[in-house]
């Protein structure tokens, strides 16, 4: 019996050592998301952009730039759901911002990675459910929204520093002097008028830690994320960090320091441009720290936006000439910056025209880490492993989109778009006509019929499971 116990203990220690060694060699994952950043806001996509984003431009040079990267939806909550599940948000009833919440039945990326020895942390905007059942907070937090209580800890995150939804991008707990009751009210300074904004930051235990927060919001989010990463590095633990910044969502406020380079512009534009530059600084800070901690080579960093820019063509956010904006399934509402840097596996200076979408995160990461999802529910994303190694030049799985009465279906080259729930369709050759100026539906009726049938069948399949 004693021999058996010793042998059992020896085997347990051996397997624990093997598991620890495997975990230590696994790639780290960081998913950074901006909020309402346009495809044309970054100079690496639009050389005419006035916004100074040297760190994101460098990130694009150091890794892969996706020319056709899509948010899964034209508004924030649904896209965020797609990032964590690999599934279209309609499947889980998240059809718009502040609608539904992330169901516990979903198998999320942090849950899957945590079973493989990863530490998991979420930092910034959540927008997949409320964070308090008792205290009135943000859009739905408190007793009235208790049915939608779904904090990060219930979906696989060990650590979190989160808000339910939007906050001002400078001094985020306080209402700016101009509170944007009219969406494009000018800002005269980033100073608060002394009135709380009505939002809070919560930690993973559900404690209000808003008193810690002041100054630039992107910097505070990154403070918390870097503390988490540093601890993981010290413990030699692989990690997943989702860093979902509020910038540049309204209310857009920037510090005097970040507004200064844009003095020649209108005050609202100065705040928008400065806010994006402040976000860019934090991306650079993150990458510098990863290099200092010598984990940059084996860390996969993705950067994107949750949808296209707010407002109209006169607003600061740029689509780079793409048609449509936030809330539209035309290109300007869903095509967003998409950058991947991963020195161990992705060649510097890579550019791809293969369409990719936020739903691809989960299947790509699981594929790269050789992890099974252990779930037979359909995924709407696909693995981009061959794309990021430049051995695949076309997408072999169409991308579907739904939002309100809009439907869209992208099959590598061609896109069909409907704004009347699939009754009538437009057809665009996106490779030749990214701005969607020429409707080819009358020239290719059979192609329209074929793609429309696929889109309608997929939309039916995406109805929430009972």
Helix fraction? 25-40%
**Overall pLDDT confidence:** 92
Q: How many alpha or pi helices?
A: 11
- What spatial form do the alpha-carbon principal axes imply? globular
Tell me the distance between the termini.
52 Å
Low-confidence segments = 11-24, 179-189
Could you characterize the architecture of this molecule?
The chain has 466 residues and is α/β, with parallel strands linked by helices. It has helices at 2-25, 54-62, 76-85, 109-114, 217-234, 256-259, 267-292, 331-334, 361-369, 385-388, 445-461, and strands at 28-34, 64-70, 119-125, 159-163, 174-176, 192-196, 202-203, 239-244, 299-305, 335-341, 350-352, 356-357, 399-403, 406-411, 414-418, 426-429. 28% of the residues lie in helices and 17% in strands. The strands form 3 sheets. Strands 1, 2, 3, 4, 7, 8, 9, 10, 11 and 12 form a 10-stranded mixed β-sheet that branches. Strands 13-14-15-16 form a 4-stranded antiparallel β-sheet, covered by helices on one side. A two-stranded antiparallel sheet has the order 5-6. A hairpin with a 2-residue loop joins strand 13 and strand 14. The protein is globular.
């Amino acid at each position: 019996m004693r021999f058996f116990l010793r042998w059992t203990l020896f085997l347990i220690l051996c397997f624990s050592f093997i598991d620890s060694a495997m975990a230590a060699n696994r790639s780290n994952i960081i998913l950074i998301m901006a909020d309402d950043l346009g495809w044309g806001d970054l100079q690496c996509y639009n050389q005419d952009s006035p916004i100074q984003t040297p760190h994101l431009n460098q990130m694009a040079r150091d890794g892969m730039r996706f020319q056709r990267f899509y948010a899964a939806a034209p508004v924030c909550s649904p896209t965020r759901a797609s990032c964590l599940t690999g599934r279209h948000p309609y499947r889980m009833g998240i059809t718009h911002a502040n609608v539904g919440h992330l169901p516990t039945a979903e198998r999320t990326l942090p849950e899957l990675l945590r079973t493989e020895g990863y530490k998991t942390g979420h930092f910034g905007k959540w927008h997949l459910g409320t964070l308090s059942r008792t205290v009135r907070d943000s859009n739905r937090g408190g007793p009235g929204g208790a049915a939608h209580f779904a904090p990060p800890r219930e979906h696989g995150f060990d650590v979190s520093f989160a808000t339910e939804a939007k906050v001002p991008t400078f001094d985020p707990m306080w209402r700016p002097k101009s509170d944007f009751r009219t969406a494009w009210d000018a800002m005269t300074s980033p100073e608060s008028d002394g009135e709380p904004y009505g939002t809070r930051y919560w930690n993973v235990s559900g404690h209000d830690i808003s008193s810690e927060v002041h100054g630039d919001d992107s910097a505070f989010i990154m403070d918390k994320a870097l503390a988490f990463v540093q601890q993981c590095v010290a413990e030699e633990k692989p990690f997943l960090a989702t860093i979902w910044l509020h910038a540049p969502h309204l209310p857009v406020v920037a510090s005097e320091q970040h507004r200064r380079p844009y003095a020649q512009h209108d005050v609202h534009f100065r705040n928008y441009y400065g806010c994006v530059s402040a976000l860019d600084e934090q991306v650079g800070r993150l990458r510098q720290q990863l290099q200092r901690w010598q984990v940059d080579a084996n860390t996969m960093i993705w950067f994107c936006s949750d949808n296209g820019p707010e407002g109209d063509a006169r607003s600061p956010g740029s689509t780079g000439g793409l048609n449509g904006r936030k809330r539209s399934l035309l290109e300007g509402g869903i095509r967003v910056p998409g950058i991947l840097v991963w020195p161990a596996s992705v060649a510097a200076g890579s550019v791809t025209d293969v369409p990719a979408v936020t739903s691809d995160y989960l299947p790509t990461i699981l594929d790269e880490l050789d992890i099974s999802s252990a779930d037979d529910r359909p995924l709407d994303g696909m693995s981009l492993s061959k794309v990021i190694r430049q051995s695949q030049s076309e997408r072999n799985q169409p991308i579907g989109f739904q939002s309100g009465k809009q439907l869209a279906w992208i099959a590598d080259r061609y896109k069909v778009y409907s704004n009347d729930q699939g009754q009538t369709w437009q057809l665009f050759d996106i490779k030749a006509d990214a701005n969607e100026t020429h409707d080819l539906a009358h020239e290719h009726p059979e192609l329209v019929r074929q793609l429309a049938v696929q889109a309608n069948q997929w939309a039916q399949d995406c109805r929430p499971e009972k």
